[in-house]
Amino acid sequence: MMTKGEEELMKYLWRLEKCFFKDLKDQYPDPKPATTTINTLLKRLIDKGIVNYRLYGNSREYYPLVSRNQYFSRQIGGLIKNHFNNSVEQFGSFFTKEIEISENDLKKLRDIVDKQLKTKSND
What we know:
Layout: H1 4-16, E1 19-20, H2 21-27, H3 35-47, E2 51-56, E3 59-64, H4 68-83, H5 88-98, H6 103-122
Antiparallel strand pairs: 1-3, 2-3
């Protein structure tokens, strides 16, 4: 699991796909975080196995080891496991009843589920 600061850094890294430190720092809005803060975040992400780098002389080119979809899939899976008794049905019920979703968006969601069901039945 990533902290809010780590997720923010990853948002930029996922967008860039690979970059050097300066490119990453340039992605932050002003006032930019301190260099030491970004370096600390990068070290933690490397230690967690989420980011790696290639050395070019004294420069490091950083790149993600985990895609955005992989990360958020794990997060949602953990949410369902830890807060909904590992029940997708409970999660779906909560999601559709407790979160304000328009009728149009619910219909779109139903279409997505129907399409996925057709795909699964064809496998």
